[in-house]
Each structure stands twice: as structure tokens, then as C-alpha cells.
């Protein structure tokens, strides 16, 4: 027992995470307690404890920063939720006309709404009310297969219904979407012109690439390529389901989910290819970064992919400006930025597993490195 306690003590002595790690933890805790309706109870427990430690600690500034980030996390979550609720309070069950343009289109075999359009609305006209401009994304579930990315459309007599449960509301916020609208083909009118913008140009290229590859490749090969390499599982969902049993039989089901490991494999492959060319270090760095960014822009992202991509960019930036690389510090920075942008991610399993496991791996790597330096087996 004494040896176990001594071992645990050493683990914490060797593991000395950065201040940013604890600030990210405080920010996340504020979001979780606010989202689970335990914010007041948690604050009544944590804030007095922090204040008590403040008067008996030399690092008083750290404690104030922890309380500050805890509060900011709760406020950020509250502001995002309230903004979504305010939209539905003014739009719930009202018949509206919406001007929008298509930014993404996915065809599925679901009946009767076989197409999911992601549109960016520019104007909403409620019946018997003044129109107002808007710049938000919406999901349109429809049986209309005519719409392509960049098409300007007019949705007539549609309604934005408030979700009946909070889980779907959180899902919409997670997807950065205001509302999901279900309508038939008759409610959608194409305006006859296309909208060119940053939100349509890259998706258009990505979608054209996807269609071209689907025609050139064998279907089974393309299904795996689209799922693992491009990250577009929704477009080939039915074919993937038919192959899941084979992957489950061999215990490699997780290979069907694109993760940060795929980014690492591509980085290693491209680094290996570039090593055959006599290039300056700066040129090689630029080409490698450009290739990774291009791959990210031309594929469908996920939380684990975004984490790996941002980590890679942070590593590359540290190399250029000659800063020491601390994996736990960079991972904390990426997690903090993602949660500041969209705090709802913390309640979803993909974020929890991706960052939780990566934090554990980073901690074990630091622990092993320090034990090796100190000569401890």
C-alpha cells in the first residue's frame, strides 16, 4: 500500500501541466455545470473554495484566472443557448418565405425526404410582418433533387418548428445550424442564378470531386475511400452499413471513422515523398502545410480531424517561430478554441473521446519522458 501511494505521488510530481491546461479545464467545467443545471450549486462550492485558497496561496493570480475562465465558460454556453431559443421564440410555427443559397447537398435513401440541403439564408419574410436580413445556416430536408451547390432558392410557406426536446436543439447548435425545415419539392423555387462566395466555392469543388471519383472508382472501393479518406459517411451510409459486419468481425470497426490518425498518416507519407526532393526547410514546411490545408478544405471534417489539423498547424507554427513544443499545452489551446467557438461540443461523445484519449496519451508521454530523464524505471 505504501508503494502504491508513493507511486501515485510520483505520477503527480512528474506530471506538471501548463497553466493553460487548468484554464481549459475551468472553462470546460463552467460549460458542463451550466449545461447540466448545476451551475449555482457548483459555484457555491467552487468559488468559496477558490477564495479560501486565494488567501492561503502564493499563486493568487492563478486562482483568479481559474474563477474567471469558469465564469466565462458558463456565460458563453448561456449566450449560445439563449440566442438559439430567441430565434425559435419569434419563428416557432410561423409561415415564412426564405431567400437562401445552397452550400451543401447530400442525397440519401430516406423516405420521403431523400435530400438534405444545407443553405445559408439571406432574408426571412414572415407573413404579415416586416422582412429582415439574416446570415445563418439551415438544414432543408426535402424530396427535391434539382438543387445544386451555389443555387439561389426561394422557400415559400415553410415553418421553423422549435425542437420538442433539448437534445435536438443541442444537435442543431453543434452543427452550427439555426433550424431544420421539412418541406416538399413544391415549396422550393429555384431563382435561376448561382451565388459565388467563399461558402459555396470550396463545397462546389469538393462535391464535384466527390461525384467524379464515384464514377471512376469501383463502388465498394469508393465507399471505403469516401468514408475513411474524404469523411463523407452520410452520402454512402447504406453501403457502409452493409460492410460494417465484416469490419466488426475482425474488430476493426473504428477504421471506418476518420480520425486524427489518418491526418498523421498523410503527414508522414507527404513528408516521406518531400524528403526525396532537395528543398529548403522553409519550402518543405510550406508545401507540407499547404497540402494538409488543401486536404482539410476538400474533405468533410469531424471533431477528431479538426483536432489533428489544428495540432499539426500549431506544431508547424512552433517550429517556424522556434518555440518549444509542449503537446499538452497545444492540445489545451486547441480544446479551448473549439469550446469557445461552440461550447456544445463538450456534451458529445466524439469530442469527449477524441480529446480525452489524446490528453491521456499526451500525459503518458510526458510522464514517460520525465521518468527516463530522472532514470526511474
Tally of contiguous helical segments: 13
**Can you write the helix and strand succession as a string?**
HHHHEEEEHEEHHHHHHHH
In terms of DSSP E residues, the strand content is 5-15%
Multimer state: single chain
Major β-sheet strand ordering: 5-3-2-1-4-6
- Measured as a percent range, the helix fraction is 55-70%
Query: How many distinct folded domains?
Result: 3
By helix and strand content, what is the structural category?
alpha+beta
Shape: globular
What is the rounded Rg? 24 Å
Q: Alpha-carbon distance between the termini? A: 19 Å
Q: Name the poorly predicted regions.
A: 1-16
- Please count the beta strands (DSSP E, at least 2 residues each): 6
- For the report, how would you describe the main beta sheet? 6 strands, mixed
Query: What's the average pLDDT?
Result: 80
Structure notes:
The chain is of the alpha+beta class and 377 residues long. It has three domains: 18-86, no CATH class; 92-195, OB fold (Dihydrolipoamide Acetyltransferase, E2P); 260-372, no CATH class. It is built from 13 helices and six strands. It has a six-stranded mixed beta sheet. Helix 2 (19-35) runs parallel beside helix 4 and helix 12 runs antiparallel to helix 13.
Amino acid at each position: 500500500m505504501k508503494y502504491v501511494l508513493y507511486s501515485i505521488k510520483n505520477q503527480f510530481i512528474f506530471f506538471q501541466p501548463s497553466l493553460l491546461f487548468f484554464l481549459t479545464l475551468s472553462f470546460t467545467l463552467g460549460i458542463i455545470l451550466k449545461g447540466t443545471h448545476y451551475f449555482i450549486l457548483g459555484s457555491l462550492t467552487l468559488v468559496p473554495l477558490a477564495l479560501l485558497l486565494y488567501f492561503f496561496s502564493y499563486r493568487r493570480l492563478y486562482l483568479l484566472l481559474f474563477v474567471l475562465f469558469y465564469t466565462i465558460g458558463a456565460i458563453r454556453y448561456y449566450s449560445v443557448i439563449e440566442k438559439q431559443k430567441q430565434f425559435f421564440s419569434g419563428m416557432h410555427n410561423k409561415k415564412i418565405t426564405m431567400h437562401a443559397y445552397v452550400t451543401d447537398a447530400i442525397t440519401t435513401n430516406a423516405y420521403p425526404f431523400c435530400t438534405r440541403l444545407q443553405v445559408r439564408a439571406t432574408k426571412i419574410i414572415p407573413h404579415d410582418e416586416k422582412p429582415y436580413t439574416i446570415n445563418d445556416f439551415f438544414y432543408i430536408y426535402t424530396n427535391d433533387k434539382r438543387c445544386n451547390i451555389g443555387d439561389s432558392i426561394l422557400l415559400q410557406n415553410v415553418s421553423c418548428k422549435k425542437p420538442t426536446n433539448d437534445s435536438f436543439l443541442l444537435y442543431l447548435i453543434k452543427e452550427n445550424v439555426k433550424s431544420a425545415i421539412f418541406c416538399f419539392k413544391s415549396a422550393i423555387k429555384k431563382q435561376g442564378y448561382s451565388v459565388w462566395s467563399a461558402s459555396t466555392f470550396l463545397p462546389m469543388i469538393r462535391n464535384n470531386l466527390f461525384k467524379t471519383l464515384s464514377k471512376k472508382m469501383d463502388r465498394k472501393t469508393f465507399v471505403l475511400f469516401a468514408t475513411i479518406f474524404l469523411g463523407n459517411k452520410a452520402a454512402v451510409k447504406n453501403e457502409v452499413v452493409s460492410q460494417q459486419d465484416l469490419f466488426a468481425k475482425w474488430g476493426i470497426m473504428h477504421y471506418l471513422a476518420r480520425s486524427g490518425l489518418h491526418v498523421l498518416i498523410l503527414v508522414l507519407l507527404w513528408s516521406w515523398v518531400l524528403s526525396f526532393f532537395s528543398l529548403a526547410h522553409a519550402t518543405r514546411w510550406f508545401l507540407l502545410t499547404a497540402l494538409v490545408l488543401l486536404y482539410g478544405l476538400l474533405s468533410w471534417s469531424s471533431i477528431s480531424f479538426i483536432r489533428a489539423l489544428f495540432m499539426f498547424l500549431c506544431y508547424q507554427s512552433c517550429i517556424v517561430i522556434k518555440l518549444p513544443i509542449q503537446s499538452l499545452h497545444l492540445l489545451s489551446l486547441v480544446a479551448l478554441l473549439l469550446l469557445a467557438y461552440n461550447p456544445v461540443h463538450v456534451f458529445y461523445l466524439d469530442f469527449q473521446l477524441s480529446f480525452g484519449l489524446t490528453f491521456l496519451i499526451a500525459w503518458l508521454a510526458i510522464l514517460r519522458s520525465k521518468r527516463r530523464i530522472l532514470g526511474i524505471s
